[in-house]
């Protein structure tokens, strides 16, 4: 199958613009969490309620994924198989949905809050600061990365521990002229594989954290 080279190149140029402001892993978290250096004596238990708040990094990262995802969805001139791969591999909800399912399987209740004030007012047993980062393919770089870190704090914001997963891969240039549509789609689907790899690592890390504190 001969792919529509012009459409693919045009998409890659637009996606390069989406990368502006893409979130990278950083220590730019709410000051109150940065100051929480005291270790907690609270052990994580299945009976606890959990409140989750996004780091500033996660908010930026989700906006980046939404831009990338929207461009992929609107690229009607692409081969259908390639478009599906771009759309699937930039799903903004993938990491959040996965994390929600993982936490719900381990704790009595899990709720997300827009800000720390709302979370503290709800008084959950455990507080989670969620930090996510994604780097997807553009013409500038075939480097793909995914990271998810959940830091756990007690109700007084003392640090309990963290669960995390990180993965990365260099995709071969998807705009190479000699590639067929299935080959390009397979490369792009590698982005989702990287994200799932990081999330599976997160699950293993969460299991270790819970057992270490039980």
Could you explain the architecture of this structure?
The protein is α/β, with parallel strands linked by helices and 214 residues long. It has one domain. The relative contact order is 0.20.
* Total number of strands: 5
User: Helix fraction?
Assistant: 40-55%
Task: Describe the sheet with the most strands.
Answer: 5 strands, mixed
Q: How are the strands of the biggest sheet laid out side by side?
A: 2-1-3-4-5
- Give the N-to-C terminal Cα separation: 55 Å
* Shape verdict: elongated
Provide the gyration radius in Å: 19 Å
* Helical segment count: 7
Count of domain modules: 1
Report strand %. Answer: 15-25%
Overall SS class? alpha/beta
Give the uncertain stretches in residue-range form: 20-29
Q: Mean pLDDT score, rounded?
A: 83
Secondary-structure element pattern, one letter each:
HHEHHHEHEEEH
């Amino acid at each position: 199958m001969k792919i529509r080279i012009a459409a693919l190149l045009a998409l890659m140029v637009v996606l390069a613009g989406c990368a502006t402001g893409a979130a990278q892993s950083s220590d730019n978290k709410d000051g109150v969490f940065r100051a929480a250096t005291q270790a907690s004596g609270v052990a994580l238990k299945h009976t606890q309620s959990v409140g989750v708040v996004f780091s500033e990094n996660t908010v930026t990262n989700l906006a980046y994924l939404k831009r990338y995802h929207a461009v992929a969805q609107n690229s009607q001139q692409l081969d259908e198989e390639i478009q599906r791969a771009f759309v699937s591999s930039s799903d903004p909800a993938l990491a959040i949905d996965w994390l929600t399912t993982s936490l719900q399987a381990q704790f009595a209740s899990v709720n997300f809050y827009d800000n720390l004030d709302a979370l503290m007012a709800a008084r959950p047993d455990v507080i989670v600061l969620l930090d996510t980062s994604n780097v997807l393919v553009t013409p500038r770089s075939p480097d793909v990365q995914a990271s998810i870190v959940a830091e756990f704090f007690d109700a007084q914001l003392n640090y309990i521990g963290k669960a995390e997963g990180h993965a990365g891969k260099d995709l071969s240039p998807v705009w190479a002229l000699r590639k067929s549509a299935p080959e390009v789609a397979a490369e792009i689907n590698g982005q989702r594989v990287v994200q799932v790899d990081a999330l599976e690592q997160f699950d293993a890390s969460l299991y270790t954290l819970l057992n270490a504190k039980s």
